[in-house]
Write a structure and sequence with these properties.
single chain; alpha+beta; Alpha-Beta Plaits; two-stranded antiparallel ribbon; two-stranded antiparallel sheet; 4 helices; globular; binds iron/sulfur cluster
Amino acid sequence: MTYVVTEACIKCKYMDCVEVCPVDCFYEGENMLVINPNECIDCGVCEPECPAEAILPDTESGLEKWLELNNSYSAEWPNVTRKGDQTPADADDHKGEDGKFDKYFSAEPGKGD
Ligand code: SF4
Ligand code: SF4
């Protein structure tokens, strides 16, 4: 079991989640984060920290796409453990928006720590 980051994170990137993860298993893309499912210890601490409600346990149905995305991009993107200044200025404008993956997803890596 693991927790996964879903498309609600795209363009939000509030980063509250990375500060609380005890095993530092968040990885940073250009406009979203992912969790490495092999490193996540399933503690659930990050889930309530996310203002966008983007983090969900993979026991919920319909998350296969996001589990696969978290798995593949956590192998490519840099590790991130600290909340920096990466949150976009217009993050709140995109909070709760539908279809963010199709509209905005970027496969480019973020800066990491
Ligand atoms: S707190 Fe939520 S929206 Fe912010 S970076 Fe973490 S998963 Fe993404
Ligand atoms: S569930 Fe725990 S270990 Fe997994 S990403 Fe969240 S804080 Fe880290």
